[in-house]
Design brief:
By secondary structure, this protein is an alpha/beta fold. It has helices at 18-28, 91-100, 166-175, 229-241, 300-306; strands at residues 8-15, 32-39, 42-51, 60-65, 78-85, 109-111, 114-120, 126-130, 154-162, 179-184, 187-191, 200-205, 219-226, 250-251, 255-261, 267-275, 290-291. The strands form two sheets. It has a nine-stranded mixed beta sheet. The protein has an eight-stranded mixed beta sheet with strand order 6-7-8-5-9-12-11-10, covered by helices on one side. Strand 3 and strand 4 form a beta hairpin. The longest helix has 13 residues, at 229-241. The chain is globular, with a radius of gyration of 18 Å. Bound molecules: zinc ion (ZN).
């Protein structure tokens, strides 16, 4: 885990209505809101982070909710499905829960020998609840309605749809240290053994698929995890050496980041474990206050009035 890519750090997607997003992820799916902040490039918009108790990398799904945004379209050059791992025997619980909450879903199916069900969040973002072959021992966040025996454990995988996978696969294998684990028809499963969980990227190759449009209900970027800034900058050199454009290091308050667009068209980020979500509020209070980066503290009062209520 020292100088490797340690699976998925977080995934960021775009939502419409903030309150619906909050209700779906905290109540229906039973995740914890671990940070309520604003989009650092557009402070009139929230940036909401959902995860486990600590906001552990590999469990964090984040959203920019833009009220009234048009719906995106799933397609090539996009991360198209987000897979959460859930415990064996929990799919019946989830089917009933999705029914009771009018969530759109497909009946359970199987891929790579793993049972899963697909559902759509309120903006049409495609999620999968997957029972992994090897039990996922991460400790979940528990709510009154979603107890430990059913709760999501964090990410299992991310699926990327691509017209031609070679160049993306090469980043995964030659730079990130992933290897091809299995293939079924046009789905290629890559895994890193640097970590036990959130370790899988599936590439689905569809030659004729039209490029997707990133808007409401779409994944904006996928962030991969590194231990610290020193390792982050080592990867910056490796990626720049391939001739890809990569940003300078950016301070995201809860982690340090670099962004680059992989050759298949998906925006990738590399993000550090440090400093983590307890840097500006204690673990037992994560998500309870509006947290602002220093440059927006002077407009806090305005933002607290203009940002929509989540409850
Ligand atoms: Zn990010």
């Amino acid at each position: 885990m020292e100088n490797t890519i340690n699976g998925i750090h977080h995934i960021t997607a775009i939502a419409g209505n903030a309150k619906k997003n909050y209700d779906f992820y905290t109540r229906v799916l039973g995740l914890r809101l671990v940070k309520k902040t604003v989009n650092f490039d557009d402070p009139q918009t929230y940036h909401l982070y959902y995860g486990d108790k600590f906001g552990t990398p590999g469990t964090i799904l984040t959203f920019f909710p833009w009220e009234g945004i048009t719906a995106g379209r799933r397609g090539a050059r996009q991360a198209t499905e987000i897979g959460y791992s859930v415990p064996e025997g929990s799919l019946d619980f989830w089917l009933k829960r999705l029914d009771a909450n009018n969530v759109l879903y497909n009946k359970p199916a199987e891929k790579f020998g793993e049972q899963y069900l697909t559902l759509l969040d309120p903006d049409g973002l495609k999620l999968e609840l997957i029972v992994p072959k090897t039990a996922d021992n991460r400790l979940p966040w528990e709510t009154a309605e979603v107890k430990t025996e059913n709760a999501t454990r964090g990410f299992h995988n991310i699926t990327i749809t691509t017209n031609k996978m070679d160049a993306t696969a090469k980043i995964l294998t030659d730079v990130f240290g992933y290897k091809l684990l299995e293939q079924h028809v046009n789905r290629f499963r890559f895994v890193t053994d640097a970590v036990d969980n959130a370790a899988i990227v599936d590439l689905v190759e569809v030659a004729g698929e039209v490029a997707g449009h990133v808007a409401g209900g779409s994944v904006h970027h996928v962030a991969f995890r590194v231990k610290n800034e020193e390792i982050l900058m080592q990867y910056r050199e490796k990626i720049a050496a391939l001739g890809l454009h990569i940003t300078d290091k950016i301070d995201r308050n809860y982690f340090y980041s670099l962004y680059f667009r992989e050759p298949g068209g998906v925006l990738f980020e590399l993000a550090t474990d440090n400093p983590g979500f307890s840097v500006d509020e204690p673990v037992d209070q994560l998500g309870s206050g509006l947290k602002l980066p220093a440059q927006y503290e002077n407009i806090r009062e305005d933002l607290e009035k203009s940002l929509p209520s989540l409850i």
